[in-house]
Design goal:
single chain, mainly alpha, two-stranded antiparallel ribbon, two-stranded antiparallel sheet, 8 helices, 66% helix, 6% strand
């Protein structure tokens, strides 16, 4: 899923709507479920069970939407001294049905959803500008070309995200992007009949540098 700074208005609005919808489903779930004191088992009413189905169906997409807004919906959990154990990060979206086991308030989930909604709402004007900016679409083409090797990697069953996030992957992607930009620039210069004058100019600069080196 594309980062929020690389999407257009329709997608920006769609993500906001999905987050609002998911927020209402989460509220409905917790309003219709409860657990007894020191009991990890949650009792769900019929409405909560229906909400649980909707949450499961939308969970992965909502998780990606929140991550794509630059927010990691996780908190650091420290077990009570009486219980003991390791400090660990809990992803509240992926573990939404288990937060009772960690004694986590459901409002923390809503906090992350609201923060993500705020980011997308703030991004509306920028998304609108991108929608009507032809240069943005050219950039999308450059991005797609630089991602082709990683798309091929995913077809072979390897993790595309891990490959792109690795230092080598970032280097390869950067080089491909740079090559694509240079190739596009040369094509534009050729179409405008500026390529030959530019080549002559570069040769003159190189020639003058060589002459200067011999004189030194």
């Amino acid at each position: 899923m594309k980062y929020y700074t690389k999407i257009l208005v329709p997608e920006n609005n769609r993500r906001i709507a999905k987050l609002h919808e998911f927020r209402n489903i989460v509220i409905n779930y917790f309003n219709n479920s409860h657990s007894e004191f020191l009991d990890d088992v949650i009792t769900e009413k019929n409405e909560a069970q229906q909400s649980r189905i909707q949450i499961n169906r939308n969970m992965d997409e909502i998780h990606d939407i929140i991550l794509s807004s630059g927010i990691n919906p996780s908190i650091q959990y420290t077990p009570p001294p009486a219980v003991g154990g390791y400090i660990k990060n809990i992803d509240l979206i992926k573990n939404i049905f288990y937060i009772n086991s960690f004694d986590i308030d459901p409002n923390f989930i809503l906090d992350f959803i609201d923060r993500s909604i705020g980011i997308y709402e703030s991004n509306y004007t920028s998304a609108l500008i991108r929608t009507f900016n032809p240069i943005f679409y050219i950039g999308l083409v450059f991005d797609y070309i630089s991602e082709l090797p990683f798309i091929a990697i995913s077809k072979f069953g390897f993790s595309r995200q891990k490959a792109e996030a690795s230092p080598v992957g970032k280097f390869i992607k950067g080089i491909l992007y740079l090559i694509t930009v240079i190739a596009a620039l040369l094509t534009i210069l050729q179409l405008l009949d500026f390529l030959e004058p530019v080549k002559v100019f570069i040769h003159e600069i190189i020639g003058s540098n060589k002459t200067l080196e011999r004189n030194i």
